[in-house]
Amino acid sequence: MIDSHTHVVPDNFPPYPGNDAHNAWPCMHCGHGNHKTVMIRGKAFREVNDTSWSATSRLREMEEEGVDRQVLSPMPELLSYWFNTQDALAFGRHINGTIASLVAEVPDRFFGLGMVPLQDPDVAAKEVRVLKNEFGLLGVEVGSNINGVAMGDRRFDPFFAALEEEDMCLFVHALHPNKDRLYPLPLMEPLVAFPNENSIGIASFLVNGVLERFPKLRIAFSHGGGAFPMTLPRLQNGWEVSGALREAMSLSPMEQARRFWYDTLVYDEDAISYLTKIYGIRQVMMGTDYPFVIRDKHPGKRFESLGLNEQDVMALTDHNCLRFLGLMKS
Fold this sequence. Notes:
Elements: E1 2-8, E2 27-30, E3 35-40, E4 43-49, H1 55-65, E5 69-74, H2 85-105, E6 110-114, H3 121-133, E7 139-143, E8 145-146, E9 149-150, H4 157-166, E10 169-173, H5 188-207, H6 210-213, E11 219-221, H7 228-241, H8 243-248, H9 253-257, E12 261-263, H10 269-279, E13 284-285, H11 310-325
Parallel strand pairs: 1-5, 5-6, 6-7, 7-10, 10-11, 11-12, 12-13
Antiparallel strand pairs: 2-3, 3-4, 8-9
């Protein structure tokens, strides 16, 4: 089984190299045992343990949870779109180097996705080539919005063009959703706000015709697309009855949506079954959000009660991810 959705946090961060007095460059505070705390602007963001950076520890837990290979990507809060471009470029290269080193350490168990400074799409486009040629990574993880601008916006076309040209994949992760009406309880942002953020983010790719303009792009969305599986039939119906929507989107929402990939991180067997129905069995791939507390442990057990044949199980747990990464032909 390949886990398409896992994250990396380095065991340390280099000193801040810039001159921005208000920078959000993180640092790592040592804790107890193998635990450390990521600090941002003097405040604790998240406590992590060595499964975030140690290949040995990751492999041990992968064995326990029945996972053969992982796709590594940065912890989303490290994506750094709120840095100035040069700071983000320097920080990203540290993160990308960390991921590349893990892949190089155990190449038969890990694949790597990196990060680029999308606050400047032209610089990000150039960095795509660095990720491929210098770091040997297979794609890029991005946030669902870049400082409030939806990731599907046309201003990111230079970045999309570079991905397509270099045959690199794109993994879109929910990031910094609107939290104005969230109650201040633990985990409300990832559990409640992320699904809505994912749905809005996917819609931006549809209405801006990203796949029409870049038809060879391979794009995946985290958390099963969040609320989007329930939104898609509404959007499809609206497209069918609205001439204005059909004029804006020459391809139907359903047709476009079935060309993306989605992970299975929905925590429920019936929900996974619905994902395979609405998106198609070939566009869904196993993902857990490893190594964080809300990850889906022992993910393979979720597929046992779905009544799937061996070919479909292999698609969900292996082949679909390899196709997304560009390592298997469709």
